[in-house]
Design goal:
451 residues; alpha+beta; Cytochrome p450; four-stranded mixed sheet; three-stranded antiparallel sheet
Protein backbone atom coordinates (compact mmCIF):
# COMPACT_ATOMS: atom_id res chain seq x y z
CA UNK A 1 0.00 0.00 0.00
CA UNK A 2 1.08 3.59 -0.55
CA UNK A 3 0.00 6.31 1.84
CA UNK A 4 -0.24 9.51 -0.20
CA UNK A 5 0.38 11.86 2.74
CA UNK A 6 -0.44 12.23 6.43
CA UNK A 7 -3.09 14.92 6.98
CA UNK A 8 -3.33 16.94 10.22
CA UNK A 9 -4.32 15.39 13.53
CA UNK A 10 -3.44 16.40 17.10
CA UNK A 11 -0.13 14.85 18.08
CA UNK A 12 -0.95 12.65 21.08
CA UNK A 13 0.67 13.44 24.40
CA UNK A 14 3.34 11.01 25.60
CA UNK A 15 1.60 10.35 28.92
CA UNK A 16 -1.93 10.42 30.28
CA UNK A 17 -3.11 13.91 31.24
CA UNK A 18 -3.50 14.89 34.87
CA UNK A 19 -6.98 15.93 36.05
CA UNK A 20 -6.12 19.62 35.60
CA UNK A 21 -4.44 19.20 32.18
CA UNK A 22 -7.37 17.09 31.00
CA UNK A 23 -9.72 19.95 31.87
CA UNK A 24 -7.60 22.51 29.99
CA UNK A 25 -7.10 20.26 26.95
CA UNK A 26 -10.73 19.14 26.84
CA UNK A 27 -12.09 22.69 27.12
CA UNK A 28 -12.16 23.01 23.32
CA UNK A 29 -11.83 19.46 21.97
CA UNK A 30 -12.13 15.86 23.21
CA UNK A 31 -9.42 14.43 20.90
CA UNK A 32 -6.82 16.83 22.30
CA UNK A 33 -6.93 14.90 25.59
CA UNK A 34 -5.68 11.66 23.96
CA UNK A 35 -2.18 10.29 24.58
CA UNK A 36 0.03 7.77 22.74
CA UNK A 37 -1.39 4.66 24.36
CA UNK A 38 -4.98 5.79 23.64
CA UNK A 39 -4.48 4.67 20.02
CA UNK A 40 -3.44 1.09 20.84
CA UNK A 41 -4.98 0.21 24.23
CA UNK A 42 -7.68 -2.46 24.40
CA UNK A 43 -9.62 -0.60 27.07
CA UNK A 44 -8.86 2.57 28.98
CA UNK A 45 -10.41 4.48 31.83
CA UNK A 46 -10.66 8.11 32.86
CA UNK A 47 -12.12 9.39 36.11
CA UNK A 48 -13.50 12.89 36.62
CA UNK A 49 -15.18 14.25 39.76
CA UNK A 50 -18.65 13.61 38.28
CA UNK A 51 -18.23 10.52 36.11
CA UNK A 52 -16.07 7.50 35.27
CA UNK A 53 -15.39 6.86 31.56
CA UNK A 54 -14.31 3.55 30.08
CA UNK A 55 -13.05 3.64 26.50
CA UNK A 56 -13.42 0.33 24.66
CA UNK A 57 -11.16 -0.04 21.62
CA UNK A 58 -10.86 -3.82 21.28
CA UNK A 59 -13.08 -4.98 18.42
CA UNK A 60 -14.89 -7.78 20.34
CA UNK A 61 -15.81 -5.21 23.01
CA UNK A 62 -16.96 -2.73 20.36
CA UNK A 63 -19.18 -5.42 18.86
CA UNK A 64 -20.59 -6.35 22.26
CA UNK A 65 -21.43 -2.74 23.18
CA UNK A 66 -22.90 -1.62 19.86
CA UNK A 67 -24.34 -4.86 18.50
CA UNK A 68 -24.78 -8.06 20.51
CA UNK A 69 -25.60 -6.48 23.93
CA UNK A 70 -26.78 -3.09 22.66
CA UNK A 71 -29.97 -3.17 24.75
CA UNK A 72 -28.03 -3.12 28.04
CA UNK A 73 -25.76 -0.30 26.84
CA UNK A 74 -28.20 2.50 25.87
CA UNK A 75 -27.21 6.08 25.15
CA UNK A 76 -25.86 7.83 28.22
CA UNK A 77 -27.73 10.62 29.98
CA UNK A 78 -24.64 12.83 29.57
CA UNK A 79 -25.17 12.82 25.78
CA UNK A 80 -28.89 13.48 26.17
CA UNK A 81 -28.17 16.51 28.38
CA UNK A 82 -25.58 17.77 25.88
CA UNK A 83 -28.10 17.61 23.02
CA UNK A 84 -31.30 18.46 24.88
CA UNK A 85 -31.48 22.17 23.91
CA UNK A 86 -31.05 21.15 20.28
CA UNK A 87 -33.17 18.02 19.81
CA UNK A 88 -35.02 17.31 23.08
CA UNK A 89 -36.39 13.80 23.60
CA UNK A 90 -36.23 12.45 20.05
CA UNK A 91 -35.38 9.27 18.21
CA UNK A 92 -31.63 10.02 18.44
CA UNK A 93 -31.50 10.56 22.21
CA UNK A 94 -34.26 8.31 23.60
CA UNK A 95 -33.77 4.77 24.92
CA UNK A 96 -35.63 1.53 25.54
CA UNK A 97 -39.35 1.26 24.77
CA UNK A 98 -39.59 5.00 24.18
CA UNK A 99 -36.96 4.70 21.43
CA UNK A 100 -38.70 1.67 19.91
CA UNK A 101 -42.01 3.54 19.81
CA UNK A 102 -40.47 6.68 18.35
CA UNK A 103 -38.52 4.66 15.79
CA UNK A 104 -41.76 2.98 14.66
CA UNK A 105 -43.40 6.41 14.27
CA UNK A 106 -40.44 7.97 12.46
CA UNK A 107 -39.57 5.08 10.13
CA UNK A 108 -42.27 5.86 7.50
CA UNK A 109 -40.76 9.35 7.10
CA UNK A 110 -37.60 7.80 5.71
CA UNK A 111 -39.47 6.49 2.68
CA UNK A 112 -38.89 10.06 1.46
CA UNK A 113 -35.12 9.48 1.56
CA UNK A 114 -35.20 6.62 -0.98
CA UNK A 115 -32.02 7.25 -2.94
CA UNK A 116 -33.42 7.26 -6.46
CA UNK A 117 -36.34 9.44 -5.36
CA UNK A 118 -34.18 12.14 -3.78
CA UNK A 119 -31.56 12.13 -6.54
CA UNK A 120 -33.14 15.00 -8.57
CA UNK A 121 -33.41 17.11 -5.39
CA UNK A 122 -29.76 16.47 -4.52
CA UNK A 123 -28.62 17.21 -8.07
CA UNK A 124 -30.54 20.52 -8.08
CA UNK A 125 -28.99 21.50 -4.74
CA UNK A 126 -25.50 20.75 -6.10
CA UNK A 127 -26.21 22.82 -9.24
CA UNK A 128 -27.27 25.75 -7.03
CA UNK A 129 -24.10 25.38 -4.92
CA UNK A 130 -21.88 25.39 -8.01
CA UNK A 131 -23.60 28.56 -9.25
CA UNK A 132 -22.90 30.19 -5.87
CA UNK A 133 -19.25 29.08 -5.99
CA UNK A 134 -18.72 30.34 -9.54
CA UNK A 135 -19.82 33.81 -8.37
CA UNK A 136 -17.16 33.95 -5.62
CA UNK A 137 -13.96 35.99 -5.88
CA UNK A 138 -11.62 33.11 -6.74
CA UNK A 139 -8.51 35.27 -6.51
CA UNK A 140 -8.78 34.86 -2.73
CA UNK A 141 -8.87 31.75 -0.52
CA UNK A 142 -12.36 30.26 -0.30
CA UNK A 143 -13.81 29.21 3.08
CA UNK A 144 -15.10 25.68 2.49
CA UNK A 145 -16.94 25.02 5.77
CA UNK A 146 -19.91 27.38 5.17
CA UNK A 147 -20.31 26.09 1.60
CA UNK A 148 -20.36 22.46 2.78
CA UNK A 149 -22.90 23.38 5.46
CA UNK A 150 -25.07 25.11 2.84
CA UNK A 151 -25.18 22.14 0.46
CA UNK A 152 -25.79 19.60 3.23
CA UNK A 153 -28.45 21.74 4.93
CA UNK A 154 -30.08 22.56 1.58
CA UNK A 155 -30.35 18.87 0.62
CA UNK A 156 -32.00 17.91 3.90
CA UNK A 157 -34.19 21.04 3.77
CA UNK A 158 -35.55 20.06 0.36
CA UNK A 159 -36.15 16.50 1.58
CA UNK A 160 -37.87 17.56 4.79
CA UNK A 161 -39.83 20.61 3.64
CA UNK A 162 -40.00 20.42 -0.19
CA UNK A 163 -38.24 23.79 -0.51
CA UNK A 164 -34.64 24.99 -0.84
CA UNK A 165 -32.69 26.73 1.92
CA UNK A 166 -31.54 30.25 1.12
CA UNK A 167 -28.03 31.55 1.75
CA UNK A 168 -29.08 33.62 4.77
CA UNK A 169 -30.68 30.59 6.44
CA UNK A 170 -27.63 28.44 5.72
CA UNK A 171 -25.27 31.04 7.16
CA UNK A 172 -27.43 31.43 10.27
CA UNK A 173 -27.33 27.67 10.81
CA UNK A 174 -23.56 27.47 10.30
CA UNK A 175 -22.84 30.30 12.76
CA UNK A 176 -25.36 29.13 15.36
CA UNK A 177 -24.26 25.50 15.29
CA UNK A 178 -20.59 26.50 15.62
CA UNK A 179 -21.59 28.59 18.63
CA UNK A 180 -23.71 25.77 20.07
CA UNK A 181 -20.85 23.28 19.87
CA UNK A 182 -18.46 25.65 21.68
CA UNK A 183 -20.91 26.54 24.47
CA UNK A 184 -22.12 22.94 24.96
CA UNK A 185 -18.54 21.63 25.08
CA UNK A 186 -17.62 24.05 27.85
CA UNK A 187 -20.83 23.39 29.77
CA UNK A 188 -20.02 19.65 29.61
CA UNK A 189 -16.48 20.08 30.90
CA UNK A 190 -17.70 22.17 33.84
CA UNK A 191 -20.34 19.53 34.69
CA UNK A 192 -17.74 16.74 34.57
CA UNK A 193 -15.69 18.64 37.12
CA UNK A 194 -18.71 19.59 39.26
CA UNK A 195 -18.04 23.28 38.67
CA UNK A 196 -20.60 26.09 38.26
CA UNK A 197 -22.02 26.42 34.74
CA UNK A 198 -21.11 30.13 34.27
CA UNK A 199 -23.99 30.58 31.81
CA UNK A 200 -22.61 28.31 29.08
CA UNK A 201 -25.77 26.17 28.98
CA UNK A 202 -27.93 29.27 28.58
CA UNK A 203 -25.77 30.45 25.69
CA UNK A 204 -26.08 26.98 24.11
CA UNK A 205 -29.88 27.18 24.42
CA UNK A 206 -29.90 30.57 22.70
CA UNK A 207 -27.74 29.19 19.87
CA UNK A 208 -30.13 26.23 19.49
CA UNK A 209 -33.07 28.68 19.32
CA UNK A 210 -31.34 30.47 16.41
CA UNK A 211 -31.12 27.15 14.53
CA UNK A 212 -34.75 26.30 15.28
CA UNK A 213 -35.86 29.74 14.08
CA UNK A 214 -34.80 28.85 10.52
CA UNK A 215 -37.50 26.16 10.23
CA UNK A 216 -39.89 26.59 13.19
CA UNK A 217 -42.26 28.73 11.11
CA UNK A 218 -42.41 26.09 8.36
CA UNK A 219 -43.28 23.38 10.91
CA UNK A 220 -45.93 25.52 12.64
CA UNK A 221 -47.57 26.52 9.36
CA UNK A 222 -47.71 22.94 8.02
CA UNK A 223 -48.95 21.57 11.36
CA UNK A 224 -51.79 24.10 11.37
CA UNK A 225 -52.55 23.55 7.67
CA UNK A 226 -52.86 19.79 8.24
CA UNK A 227 -54.99 19.99 11.38
CA UNK A 228 -57.24 22.94 10.52
CA UNK A 229 -57.52 22.90 6.72
CA UNK A 230 -56.67 19.31 5.83
CA UNK A 231 -53.85 20.45 3.54
CA UNK A 232 -51.02 18.00 2.98
CA UNK A 233 -47.50 17.87 1.65
CA UNK A 234 -45.38 14.96 0.41
CA UNK A 235 -42.21 15.01 2.48
CA UNK A 236 -40.61 14.07 5.79
CA UNK A 237 -42.42 16.82 7.70
CA UNK A 238 -45.82 15.56 6.55
CA UNK A 239 -44.91 11.98 7.47
CA UNK A 240 -44.02 13.07 11.01
CA UNK A 241 -47.27 15.03 11.37
CA UNK A 242 -49.17 11.95 10.15
CA UNK A 243 -47.26 9.50 12.39
CA UNK A 244 -49.18 7.58 15.06
CA UNK A 245 -47.92 5.87 18.21
CA UNK A 246 -47.82 2.08 17.61
CA UNK A 247 -49.69 1.29 20.87
CA UNK A 248 -51.78 4.36 21.77
CA UNK A 249 -52.47 5.79 18.30
CA UNK A 250 -51.49 9.26 19.53
CA UNK A 251 -49.92 11.76 17.12
CA UNK A 252 -46.81 13.81 17.77
CA UNK A 253 -47.59 17.24 19.23
CA UNK A 254 -46.23 20.23 17.32
CA UNK A 255 -43.40 20.44 19.89
CA UNK A 256 -42.56 16.75 19.39
CA UNK A 257 -42.59 17.18 15.60
CA UNK A 258 -40.08 20.02 16.07
CA UNK A 259 -37.84 17.74 18.16
CA UNK A 260 -37.87 15.01 15.50
CA UNK A 261 -37.32 17.54 12.70
CA UNK A 262 -34.42 19.07 14.66
CA UNK A 263 -32.88 15.61 15.06
CA UNK A 264 -33.19 14.69 11.39
CA UNK A 265 -31.88 18.12 10.42
CA UNK A 266 -28.89 17.86 12.77
CA UNK A 267 -28.06 14.28 11.76
CA UNK A 268 -28.77 14.99 8.09
CA UNK A 269 -26.69 18.11 7.61
CA UNK A 270 -23.96 18.60 10.21
CA UNK A 271 -22.25 15.21 9.84
CA UNK A 272 -22.41 15.42 6.03
CA UNK A 273 -21.05 18.97 6.06
CA UNK A 274 -18.12 17.88 8.24
CA UNK A 275 -17.25 14.96 5.94
CA UNK A 276 -17.59 16.97 2.70
CA UNK A 277 -15.34 19.72 4.10
CA UNK A 278 -12.59 17.27 5.06
CA UNK A 279 -12.90 15.38 1.75
CA UNK A 280 -12.40 18.57 -0.27
CA UNK A 281 -9.32 19.42 1.81
CA UNK A 282 -7.85 15.95 1.21
CA UNK A 283 -8.57 16.18 -2.52
CA UNK A 284 -6.93 19.61 -2.67
CA UNK A 285 -3.72 17.97 -1.43
CA UNK A 286 -3.83 15.34 -4.20
CA UNK A 287 -4.37 16.69 -7.77
CA UNK A 288 -4.02 13.19 -9.27
CA UNK A 289 -7.14 12.08 -7.41
CA UNK A 290 -9.03 15.09 -8.75
CA UNK A 291 -8.08 13.97 -12.27
CA UNK A 292 -9.22 10.41 -11.51
CA UNK A 293 -12.60 11.67 -10.28
CA UNK A 294 -13.05 13.79 -13.41
CA UNK A 295 -12.19 10.80 -15.59
CA UNK A 296 -14.71 8.47 -13.92
CA UNK A 297 -17.47 11.11 -13.71
CA UNK A 298 -17.15 12.03 -17.40
CA UNK A 299 -18.87 14.99 -19.06
CA UNK A 300 -22.50 16.05 -18.92
CA UNK A 301 -25.01 15.74 -16.07
CA UNK A 302 -24.45 12.88 -13.64
CA UNK A 303 -27.26 10.33 -13.62
CA UNK A 304 -28.41 8.16 -10.72
CA UNK A 305 -27.13 5.08 -12.56
CA UNK A 306 -23.70 6.68 -13.08
CA UNK A 307 -23.10 6.94 -9.32
CA UNK A 308 -22.34 3.22 -9.18
CA UNK A 309 -19.23 3.81 -11.29
CA UNK A 310 -17.76 6.54 -9.06
CA UNK A 311 -15.33 4.19 -7.33
CA UNK A 312 -12.49 6.67 -6.75
CA UNK A 313 -14.92 9.27 -5.41
CA UNK A 314 -16.54 6.69 -3.13
CA UNK A 315 -13.18 5.52 -1.74
CA UNK A 316 -12.06 9.10 -1.10
CA UNK A 317 -15.26 9.65 0.89
CA UNK A 318 -14.81 6.40 2.80
CA UNK A 319 -11.22 7.24 3.66
CA UNK A 320 -12.30 10.73 4.74
CA UNK A 321 -14.81 9.16 7.15
CA UNK A 322 -12.10 6.82 8.46
CA UNK A 323 -9.66 9.65 9.16
CA UNK A 324 -12.21 12.27 10.22
CA UNK A 325 -15.37 10.53 11.51
CA UNK A 326 -17.92 13.32 12.13
CA UNK A 327 -19.05 11.60 15.35
CA UNK A 328 -15.71 10.71 16.91
CA UNK A 329 -17.12 9.31 20.16
CA UNK A 330 -20.21 7.13 20.66
CA UNK A 331 -21.38 7.35 24.26
CA UNK A 332 -23.21 4.54 26.06
CA UNK A 333 -24.40 3.88 29.61
CA UNK A 334 -23.73 0.87 31.87
CA UNK A 335 -27.16 -0.23 33.16
CA UNK A 336 -25.98 -3.10 35.38
CA UNK A 337 -22.61 -4.07 36.92
CA UNK A 338 -20.45 -5.66 34.23
CA UNK A 339 -16.88 -6.89 33.79
CA UNK A 340 -14.87 -6.00 30.68
CA UNK A 341 -11.33 -7.25 30.37
CA UNK A 342 -9.71 -6.51 33.75
CA UNK A 343 -12.16 -3.78 34.75
CA UNK A 344 -15.37 -3.86 36.80
CA UNK A 345 -17.89 -1.26 35.63
CA UNK A 346 -20.61 -0.10 38.00
CA UNK A 347 -24.12 0.96 37.00
CA UNK A 348 -24.14 4.54 35.71
CA UNK A 349 -20.58 4.51 34.36
CA UNK A 350 -20.02 5.79 30.84
CA UNK A 351 -18.82 3.48 28.07
CA UNK A 352 -17.23 5.16 25.07
CA UNK A 353 -16.61 3.61 21.66
CA UNK A 354 -14.49 5.97 19.59
CA UNK A 355 -14.52 5.69 15.79
CA UNK A 356 -11.60 8.15 15.89
CA UNK A 357 -9.49 5.71 17.92
CA UNK A 358 -10.69 2.42 16.42
CA UNK A 359 -10.13 3.68 12.88
CA UNK A 360 -6.68 5.08 13.70
CA UNK A 361 -5.46 1.97 15.55
CA UNK A 362 -2.45 0.39 13.80
CA UNK A 363 -3.67 -3.05 14.92
CA UNK A 364 -6.66 -2.48 12.63
CA UNK A 365 -5.29 -0.43 9.73
CA UNK A 366 -1.66 -0.20 8.54
CA UNK A 367 -0.28 3.35 8.63
CA UNK A 368 -3.57 4.46 10.19
CA UNK A 369 -2.93 8.22 10.19
CA UNK A 370 -2.10 8.26 6.48
CA UNK A 371 -4.49 9.12 3.65
CA UNK A 372 -4.91 6.09 1.37
CA UNK A 373 -8.28 5.71 -0.41
CA UNK A 374 -6.95 2.58 -2.12
CA UNK A 375 -7.05 0.68 1.19
CA UNK A 376 -10.74 0.02 0.48
CA UNK A 377 -9.68 -2.06 -2.56
CA UNK A 378 -6.96 -3.90 -0.63
CA UNK A 379 -7.94 -7.55 0.15
CA UNK A 380 -5.63 -7.52 3.17
CA UNK A 381 -7.61 -4.67 4.72
CA UNK A 382 -11.05 -6.04 3.83
CA UNK A 383 -11.67 -7.40 7.34
CA UNK A 384 -10.71 -4.07 8.95
CA UNK A 385 -12.97 -2.22 6.52
CA UNK A 386 -15.84 -4.43 7.68
CA UNK A 387 -15.22 -4.63 11.43
CA UNK A 388 -13.03 -1.65 12.41
CA UNK A 389 -14.80 0.95 10.29
CA UNK A 390 -17.75 2.54 12.09
CA UNK A 391 -18.31 6.19 11.06
CA UNK A 392 -22.06 5.53 11.05
CA UNK A 393 -22.04 3.40 14.20
CA UNK A 394 -23.15 -0.23 14.19
CA UNK A 395 -25.98 -2.39 15.49
CA UNK A 396 -29.58 -1.29 16.12
CA UNK A 397 -28.60 2.39 16.50
CA UNK A 398 -26.67 2.50 13.21
CA UNK A 399 -27.26 5.71 11.25
CA UNK A 400 -30.31 5.20 9.05
CA UNK A 401 -29.08 7.89 6.66
CA UNK A 402 -25.73 6.33 5.69
CA UNK A 403 -26.73 5.68 2.06
CA UNK A 404 -28.31 9.13 1.80
CA UNK A 405 -25.09 10.77 3.05
CA UNK A 406 -22.92 8.80 0.64
CA UNK A 407 -25.05 9.67 -2.38
CA UNK A 408 -25.06 13.35 -1.40
CA UNK A 409 -21.28 13.32 -0.95
CA UNK A 410 -20.61 11.58 -4.28
CA UNK A 411 -22.72 14.12 -6.16
CA UNK A 412 -21.19 17.08 -4.33
CA UNK A 413 -17.55 16.00 -4.59
CA UNK A 414 -17.83 14.99 -8.25
CA UNK A 415 -19.70 18.22 -9.06
CA UNK A 416 -17.13 20.48 -7.38
CA UNK A 417 -14.07 18.65 -8.76
CA UNK A 418 -15.48 18.65 -12.30
CA UNK A 419 -16.06 22.42 -12.05
CA UNK A 420 -12.96 23.58 -10.17
CA UNK A 421 -9.34 22.69 -9.60
CA UNK A 422 -8.70 22.60 -5.85
CA UNK A 423 -5.39 23.53 -4.24
CA UNK A 424 -4.35 23.57 -0.60
CA UNK A 425 -2.70 26.71 0.76
CA UNK A 426 0.85 25.98 2.02
CA UNK A 427 1.05 26.46 5.79
CA UNK A 428 -2.73 26.87 6.17
CA UNK A 429 -3.48 23.46 7.67
CA UNK A 430 -6.85 22.82 9.31
CA UNK A 431 -6.82 21.69 12.94
CA UNK A 432 -9.33 18.93 13.78
CA UNK A 433 -11.45 19.86 16.80
CA UNK A 434 -13.80 17.26 18.28
CA UNK A 435 -16.89 18.50 20.09
CA UNK A 436 -20.34 17.20 19.18
CA UNK A 437 -18.95 16.72 15.68
CA UNK A 438 -15.46 16.86 14.20
CA UNK A 439 -14.71 20.16 12.51
CA UNK A 440 -11.65 22.24 11.64
CA UNK A 441 -11.27 24.65 14.53
CA UNK A 442 -9.57 27.21 12.30
CA UNK A 443 -11.66 26.39 9.22
CA UNK A 444 -10.69 24.93 5.83
CA UNK A 445 -9.59 27.41 3.18
CA UNK A 446 -8.66 26.37 -0.37
CA UNK A 447 -7.74 28.05 -3.64
CA UNK A 448 -10.26 27.26 -6.39
CA UNK A 449 -9.66 27.69 -10.11
CA UNK A 450 -12.60 27.49 -12.49
CA UNK A 451 -11.94 24.83 -15.12
Amino acid sequence: MTVRFTPPYPQPHSTKSSLLKRFVRGWNSWIHVLFDKSYTMKMGEIHTPALSFYIANELPLVRRILETDAEIFPKHRFLQDLLDPLIGNSVFSSNGQDWLDQRAMVNPAFSHTALKGVFPMMAAAVDDLLATMRALDLSKPVSIDPLATHIAADVIFRTMFSQPLDAAGARAIFDAFHDYQKQAQRSSMLRLYRLPGFGYLGRARRAAARIHAVFAGIVAERYAATHTRGERGEDILQSLIDARHPRTGAAFSEHEVMEQISTIFLAGHETAASAITWALYLLAREPALQDAIRAEAGEGPLTYEALRGLNVTRNVFRETLRLYPPLSFLVRSVTCPVDMRDKHLETGAMLVVSPWLVQRNRDNFPEPHGFDPDRFNDPEQASACRHAYLPFGKGPRVCIGAGFAQQEALLTLAGIVRTFELAAIPGDDPEPISRLTLRAGNGVRLMLTLR
